[in-house]
Amino acid sequence: MSATRTKRRQYDPVKTRAAVRAQFELVHEGVRGLAEEQFALPTALGEWTVRDLAVHLTWAPSAIVRALDAPEPPKLETTVSDWALGTASRAAAVDEGTRALSAAHPDVLALYEETAARFAERAADLDAQRLVATPAGAMNLTDYLVTRIVELVVHTDDLNRAIGLDVSFDRQALAATTRLLADAFAAKAPGASTEVRIPPFAVVQCVAGPRHTRGTPPSVVETDPLTWIRLATGRARWGTEIAESRVSASGERSDLSALLPVMS
Q: What residue ranges define each of the domains in the chain, with the CATH number in brackets?
């Protein structure tokens, strides 16, 4: 897979590493408080139960450890935007892997403790520029950390919505997720006729159309980070979010419904 030819956002490796750990700790605390019967409840993710989802959330930090244990690939093959735009092709493998992990670890809380300990051991000494092998192709380690943040944030929200939890979001993790999904959307819909604003974290220009020479494009879309994340990952519908005033859109190219989601 070739890297998307767009200007690449640079992520701070120290903040990114800290965000993975912080968001996983928040999830760990939320899962620790679940009653046994809550693990059997359904989620909005196909046939996954809350237990399956909770187990899958350990995959993000453990995947980093596995990638570091493997040999370093010889060259860069993909970027964070490529990763986001290719998630649908890997969905079946993710489902299979999650079910296998769930079957192998009947004690969910023990799995969380083990995962947290393994990541903490490796996270203290990460080479930010190292390449790692991923299911999407060889990637810069810092960028791969960002993809793990996206997994954690998106599925933290899934967990909250499934059982009415209120697990919070680390600010840096929420910012990185918002920015990655905004950049991936701009890569999917290149252009400069529409400005998508997700304050306070991201602004991107996108969508093909008449070029403007200065100032704000003729079409503007604005929403909050969590609504954007839900739209970009297929958890929310454009028409509903417009109708309930969680998205404001003006201009002839401000209807993004045909271009969403970014990830599925």
A: 13-174 (1.20.120.450), 189-259 (3.30.1050.40)
- Global pTM? 0.94
Please report, for residues 78, 179, 213, 244, the alpha-carbon distance to residue 138 in angstroms, rounded to integers and kept in the order given.
Answer: 6, 21, 38, 41
| 249/199 Cα distance (integer angstroms) | 14
pLDDT value at residue 212 = 65
Distance CA 173, CA 16 (A): 8
> How confident is the model at residue 119, as a pLDDT?
94
Tokens read off for 178: 């918002």
Tokens 């996270």 sit on residue = 123
Contact (Cβ atoms closer than 8 angstroms) between residue 54 and residue 30 = no
| Residue 207: other Cβ atoms inside 10 A | 25
Q: State pLDDT tens for residues 213-252.
A: 666 788 999 999 999 999 999 999 999 999 999 999 999 9
Calpha distance 37→45 (Å, rounded): 18
pLDDT less than 50: residues of the chain: 1-6
Integer Cα distance of 194 and 15 in angstroms: 30
